[in-house]
């Protein structure tokens, strides 16, 4: 059966709201046009001026408020668009004020109020407002600059004063835009249409910004620009400066300016406080639930930690099960050993095994590091070193140097981390002849032979290369050495954890180790081992060990 899933895209309601604003503005404009016979009228001079003064005062207040907001907010985020806004709103508010004071019927303001004077201020102000918002829309909304805002302020003041002076003093230099008794001139109508088109283009730019950011403030600005389009449309058809269409245009103008300023206000002032308020609510919520969250997280950590400890304990038991018994007696050769990991898992390991009826093999090794990775390496190393049927055919089991050479080659075939390495000491003891053959694989502490007579001999005739992944550059040659032992002679094999630094002091110095070996050379091996353990405990004084401690002693 074939199933078909339909991809349903969610509809953005803000586009619908914008369309409704457009349709609502168009509807009102069309209703006024269709019902012109019933609605159209020329208001009285005083009545119109009262409404005009109220609407333009609102416009001026909104413009200068927006100027102050954008001018001082720029200091915080340095966005170039804010500088453009500040200049546009300052000039627009200034020219709206001169337009209001110069409207026909208003008191003398520098010069007599008149229709040409008010209309000229109006058309220049609307041109600057439309072009300014278009330029601002062309600037990327998040583009930042280091320009000084003072330049824009003084530039706006100079432009405003210059326009005010020229229009007020040299009004005759401008072409007529409205002729009493005839209505709007063709130039005035064309300029209004030009402004209308600029508003429409600018609205598209802000809709684009919304599409990129999904920030509703850009939709508010776009909505204000759309309403402003209808304001300009109304100013293309009025017949008297006091009629219904002129009043409708002013209402559209104030509504459009409010929406534009509202969007700018939200983006620069309201939005940061809303984000701060939301952040405070989140912090409060986190604080209220912090105890529960901490308790839950702690419980989860305890469970995970308990599982890890349980797994480590299993691994520890497996690792210890691979070690020989602490006390061994093989073919009249005695062994005693001790194994003290500094963590749950150790990087030290050793082995004692039977090769044949006359020969015993033994080794001790130290893997770099501690913990799980080192412990896993001990398992692999133990498998390679201990002789198996296949290994005995490939390597002479009675040649410790060949065993180490085989181990080195096998190690370099692996994918072990390049920094991991093993140092070890491998020996074979013939129980009949009591000949001890040995080879070092880079171990840094050499076994000590204590003869029955009290003579001390360090097994230093063989020094080899550590087992590491260096096979591409160097192939070491391991050489064995032999030493003849007599009945009752003892050899201690150990790792550096027994004699290395312990919190800035030596755990057991080699001379002290030799002293213990000599003092107990005629005593049982268990007594000797216990003497070493007592020395360790006395020096450590209950503190944790810095390294694994491993050793075993053989008596011929």
UniProtKB/TrEMBL annotation:
<feature type="transmembrane region" description="Helical">
    <location>
        <begin position="191"/>
        <end position="207"/>
    </location>
</feature>
<dbReference type="Pfam" id="PF07228">
    <property type="entry name" value="SpoIIE"/>
</dbReference>
<feature type="transmembrane region" description="Helical">
    <location>
        <begin position="121"/>
        <end position="139"/>
    </location>
</feature>
<dbReference type="InterPro" id="IPR033425">
    <property type="entry name" value="MASE3"/>
</dbReference>
<keyword id="KW-0812">Transmembrane</keyword>
<feature type="transmembrane region" description="Helical">
    <location>
        <begin position="12"/>
        <end position="31"/>
    </location>
</feature>
<feature type="transmembrane region" description="Helical">
    <location>
        <begin position="51"/>
        <end position="70"/>
    </location>
</feature>
<feature type="domain" description="PPM-type phosphatase">
    <location>
        <begin position="330"/>
        <end position="556"/>
    </location>
</feature>
<dbReference type="InterPro" id="IPR001932">
    <property type="entry name" value="PPM-type_phosphatase-like_dom"/>
</dbReference>
<dbReference type="InterPro" id="IPR052016">
    <property type="entry name" value="Bact_Sigma-Reg"/>
</dbReference>
<feature type="transmembrane region" description="Helical">
    <location>
        <begin position="82"/>
        <end position="101"/>
    </location>
</feature>
<keyword id="KW-0472">Membrane</keyword>
<dbReference type="GO" id="GO:0016791">
    <property type="term" value="F:phosphatase activity"/>
</dbReference>
<dbReference type="InterPro" id="IPR036457">
    <property type="entry name" value="PPM-type-like_dom_sf"/>
</dbReference>
<keyword id="KW-1133">Transmembrane helix</keyword>
<protein>
    <submittedName>
        <fullName>Sigma-B regulation protein RsbU (Phosphoserine phosphatase)</fullName>
        <ecNumber>3.1.3.3</ecNumber>
    </submittedName>
</protein>
<feature type="transmembrane region" description="Helical">
    <location>
        <begin position="151"/>
        <end position="171"/>
    </location>
</feature>
<feature type="transmembrane region" description="Helical">
    <location>
        <begin position="219"/>
        <end position="238"/>
    </location>
</feature>
<keyword id="KW-0378">Hydrolase</keyword>
<dbReference type="Pfam" id="PF17159">
    <property type="entry name" value="MASE3"/>
</dbReference>
């Amino acid at each position: 059966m074939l199933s078909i899933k339909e991809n349903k895209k969610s509809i953005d309601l803000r586009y619908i709201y914008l369309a409704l604003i457009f349709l609502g503005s168009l509807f009102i404009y069309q209703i006024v046009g269709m019902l012109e016979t019933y609605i159209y009228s020329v208001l009285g001079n005083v009545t119109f001026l009262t409404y005009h003064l109220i609407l333009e005062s609102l416009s001026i207040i909104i413009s200068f408020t927006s100027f102050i907001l954008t001018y001082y907010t720029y200091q915080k985020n340095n966005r170039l668009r804010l500088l453009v806004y500040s200049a546009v709103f300052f000039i627009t508010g200034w020219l709206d004020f001169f337009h209001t004071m110069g409207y026909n019927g208003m008191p003398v303001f520098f010069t007599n109020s008149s229709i040409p004077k008010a209309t000229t201020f109006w058309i220049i102000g609307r041109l600057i407002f439309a072009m300014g918002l278009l330029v601002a829309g062309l600037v990327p909304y998040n583009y930042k600059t280091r320009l000084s805002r003072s330049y824009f302020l003084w530039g706006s003041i100079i432009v405003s004063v210059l326009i005010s002076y020229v229009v007020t003093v040299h009004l005759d230099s401008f072409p007529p835009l409205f002729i009493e008794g005839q209505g709007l001139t063709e130039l005035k109508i064309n300029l209004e249409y030009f402004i209308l088109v600029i508003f429409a283009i600018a609205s598209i730019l802000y809709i684009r910004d919304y599409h990129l950011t999904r920030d509703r403030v850009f939709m508010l600005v776009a909505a204000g620009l759309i309403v402003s389009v209808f304001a300009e449309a109304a100013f293309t058809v009025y017949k008297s400066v006091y009629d219904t269409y002129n009043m409708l245009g002013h209402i559209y103008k104030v509504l459009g300016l409010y929406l534009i300023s509202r969007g700018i206000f939200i983006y620069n002032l309201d939005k940061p406080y809303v984000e701060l308020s939301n952040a405070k609510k989140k912090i409060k919520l986190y604080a209220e639930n912090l105890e529960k969250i901490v308790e839950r997280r702690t419980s989860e950590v305890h469970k995970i930690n308990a599982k890890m400890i349980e797994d480590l304990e299993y691994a520890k038991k497996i690792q210890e099960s691979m070690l020989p018994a602490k006390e061994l007696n093989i073919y009249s050769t005695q062994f005693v050993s001790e194994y003290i990991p500094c963590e749950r898992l150790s990087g030290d390991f050793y082995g004692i095994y039977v090769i044949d009826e006359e020969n015993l093999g033994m080794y001790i090794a130290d893997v770099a590091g501690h913990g799980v990775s080192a412990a896993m390496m001990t398992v692999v190393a133990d498998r390679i070193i201990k002789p198996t049927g296949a290994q005995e055919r490939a390597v002479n089991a009675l040649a410790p140097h060949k065993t180490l050479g085989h181990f080195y080659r096998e190690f370099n075939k692996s994918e072990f981390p390049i920094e991991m390495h093993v140092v070890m000491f491998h020996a074979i003891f013939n129980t009949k002849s009591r000949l001890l053959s040995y080879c070092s694989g880079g171990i840094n502490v050499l076994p000590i032979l204590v003869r029955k007579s009290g003579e001390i001999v360090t097994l230093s005739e063989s020094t080899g290369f550590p087992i590491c992944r260096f096979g591409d550059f160097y192939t070491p040659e391991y050489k064995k050495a032999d030493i003849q032992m007599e009945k009752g002679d003892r050899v201690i094999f150990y790792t550096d954890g027994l004699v290395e630094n312990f919190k800035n002091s030596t755990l057991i110095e080699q001379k002290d180790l030799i002293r213990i070996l000599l003092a107990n050379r005629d005593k049982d091996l268990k007594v000797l081992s216990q003497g070493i353990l007592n020395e360790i405990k006395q020096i450590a004084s209950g503190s944790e060990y810095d390294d694994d401690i491993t050793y075993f002693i053989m008596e011929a």
